[in-house]
Design goal:
This protein is an alpha/beta fold. The protein has two domains: about 180 residues, Alpha-Beta Complex (Quinone Oxidoreductase, Chain A, domain 1); about 120 residues, NAD(P)-binding Rossmann-like Domain (Rossmann fold), CATH 3.40.50.720. Helix content is about 25%, strand content about 25%. Strands 3, 4, 5, 6, 7, 14 and 15 form a seven-stranded mixed β-sheet that branches. It is globular. The two termini are about 20 Å apart. About 45% of the residues are buried. It comes from Amphiprion percula (Orange clownfish). One of its GO terms (molecular function) is NADPH binding. Keywords: NADP, Oxidoreductase.
Amino acid sequence: MQAVCVDVPGGPESLLLRSVSRPQPKDGEVLIKVHAAALNRADLLQRRGLYPPPPGESDIMGLEVAGTVDSLGPGVKMDWKPDDRIMALLRGGGYAEYVSVPEELLMSVPSNLTLSQAAAIPEAWLTAFQLLVKEGEVVLVHAGGSGVGTAAVQLVRLFGAVPVVTAGSEEKLKMAEKLGAAAGFNYREESFAKGGANVILDCIGGCNWEQNVSCLSVDGRWVLYGTMGGRAVEGDLLGKLLSKRGHLLSSLLRSRSLQVRKQNFALPFLPHFSAQSASLRPVIDSSFSLEDVAEAHRHMEANRNMGKIIINQNPQS
């Protein structure tokens, strides 16, 4: 099969498409014929050698895919059949024509979604879903135009809370507002440290810490799931956070155990994607072929995307 490999960590030019052995499904696994995979910031870090896969996992990038059932390994309990449309949460291996996945991390694709749309759901929406917000709370979502950001805005509204976003362009802010954001801040032009956020969903990290603490309400929760703006912090972060009784939480899906991922992958919001409800929708920015994966990485690194970037392996996905 064809897969994207990296021999030497580096820039997008280090991504190589080559022929590798097709994986064989182990006990309890399902082999997926991949139709579409979605990019994540973790892929960029892995390509640069900064975010290796967990021990024993595939060194091929790709954390979320959609496709069809190819074959079943021994011991599969669910009634999956060849050509069933499924999406999957991975620890790696998605940038390939086939990937083998524990059956607990599979979901059927709603009939009204394309496989490209479905590929944009598992990693991004599960990350956003961990917010666990309460009705009426104000939620500050950084990178409101990203895959996780566009998911979070919709989920916050679904929970009856109030989403506010930051983004780097007026175009991204307008898109977030169309999805339900109550307000937005262009971080290139204005401060967002105006107080009142019960929850912060943060993929930026270090460079924003002072504004984050300033805008966090007393007893607020700051959920960190990325460090795009750096990891180093200088100053009295702990003292200021303590004065507000703030809760600093961190979240990484990839390194979690299979048991934890199984428990969390029973996504209660999935019915909201169905044709009967359709109150949630994955936002797709652009699609690239597997051969053009380097261009897809460049597109994300330039922060040009609004929503998810998809790698399509089937033009009808």
